[in-house]
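Weekly puzzle thread! Below is a chain. First person to post its structure in token form gets bragging rights.
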Amino acid sequence: MSVPFRAALIASAAVLVTACAPAVARHGFQPVDVSPSDIVVGTDTRETVQARLGSPSAVSTFEPNVWFYVSQTTAKYTFNLPEVSQRSVTQITFDEANGRVLSVVNLDLEDGQQIAYSDRETPTRGRELTVLEQLLGNVGRQRLPGDEEDLPPNQRRREE
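Winning reply:
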């Protein structure tokens, strides 16, 4: 093998190997100095939790005393869809009366559940048009320029 061929082979192999490296993205809550596991049940309040962790990612819709801190890491390989490689959900429940922490629950990717989506669609009124009907449907519906009907409603043309 010649030296230029060997160099081209090594360069192309290096390009192929780097193309297989995933693009990693982190979304959501990213703890900096304090992790959600540092929250002490019974002593911390809403104010101390918000001062330590910041605003929650989400507040429960039906129970405003439950806060969620959500973070996830995704990896995307070249032409594939992104895959979630790590997920962390921290659920903090507060006492309604005094605002103290009642419980801290940490959930991860294995605790997630698959939801069966319904593939039914809401029917729309009207009829379905074929491609030919869509293309030729507006032929003859346009108004000619200068026609009296091209004025906005409730306006007349000035008489000179």
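Puzzle host: Confirmed. Bonus trivia for everyone else. The chain has three helices and five strands.
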